[in-house]
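Quick note —
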Amino acid sequence: MSKLLPNLPIENLTTENDYIGIIEKGNLLRSFFLHNKHEFSQMKIFSIYGEWGSGKSTLMKYLEKELKGSFNTFFFESWEFESDENLSLSLLETLTKDTNSSTDGLIKNARKLFEGFAKSLTIKTPIVNINTDKILEEVKEDSFLELKEQFKADFIDWENKITTKDKSPDYNIVFIDDLDRCEPENILNLLSAMKLFFTYGKKTIFLCGIDKKAIREAVKTKYGEIVKANEYLEKVFDISFSMPETVDASKLVKQYFNDDEIVEGKKIGDLISDFFDDLHFKNPRRIKKILNKYLIIKRLKESESSDNLVLPNIIHNNSGTLFETYLTLYLLILSEFEPENFKLLFNLSAKRINYADSLKKSNLDESQIKSISSNHLLNYLKEESLRGEKIGNYEDKVLFRFYLANFTPNKVDSISSLIFGDRDSFTKHFNLEIKSYEYYFSIFMFQNELNFINDLKNMEISLINYKKIISNLI
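Predicted structure written out below.
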């Protein structure tokens, strides 16, 4: 039986469930860290760039396992310490706690240093600038220079204690995870402290999982346009790596569907993988979130206690339709990740206004605009198709376009010609600078016109009610 998958690093990673390409990327990074130890006196802070949900945690957990024994490994879950007064101190306490070393002096001095540093930090260059007067106010009886020198000596002493034990590795590697989930102030304070103080060590390196977008927002939030985020990142990290760009979503989707679930001669898991690919919906964490919700709906259909519920007509036990299965997944995606578009979905009045305004921006004369508006473009936006009522005695090709018009994006930059002719006409003449899931679903509809028309004509639940069902269920 399929089970809900958590938004956690993949455990027991194998080639069958490695849908991100973690093993290949992890082995490459393992080789790098194992064979470049002689460089670590100069290069100490590394990053793995990847967007939210791209698998950074899974990659670092894999590396931690692979490097254990060759390095003393530490894993710092930044977000777990978000409520602490100072992430830098929390990091240091994590390192010393894990090694059970006598570090009372190190912690005591570091507390003064980090607290004063956090309150004095400013940025005037692509990295950091310390307001010396401010930090002196904080540290009071100790000079900033003395605290730095004491921290350096204490940190090196800590390194030596844990790397000179019998059979102990010569180097430490610290994995910093979930930093981009923290508040902007905490993100920048920790990164700056790592660069300025933790690099005093001789035997410790750091690998941070970073979402560039989150760091850019953190820099912009705190410092506006004073500092360019890319320059800041270049100064902090000695070498940066990237997450694999190609995700094999089929390996993830297959964990939700059995191989014996066949529709029109194809495995339902393969069909849904292709659907996600067509929608450009490839983020692993997002896929899991949607499929978990889909699985809940599927289990409701299996439950004897759900007889009074109106549920989507997804494929289940040789019933349901493929279109309504896709529609359910699409509405889940839209409601979760494009809520504004979900809110506007099926609002044909707003769409008519937007499309009419977009026509005016085109290079058409008034007669052409009038012709398009009255005979083709806006004429497809009929409320009857939303309510499941009969539209008229049209041939299937025309009828399909009445349904399709409900799904085209509400917002558009410009429409320069007829968009409902075929797929090529739509992609050529429906101009949208930032492509949305709505845009890609419209193309998907065009591609499957012949397959979907009968499902659309025979739907027992109207489109507008489908939206309400999804809103109420999940």
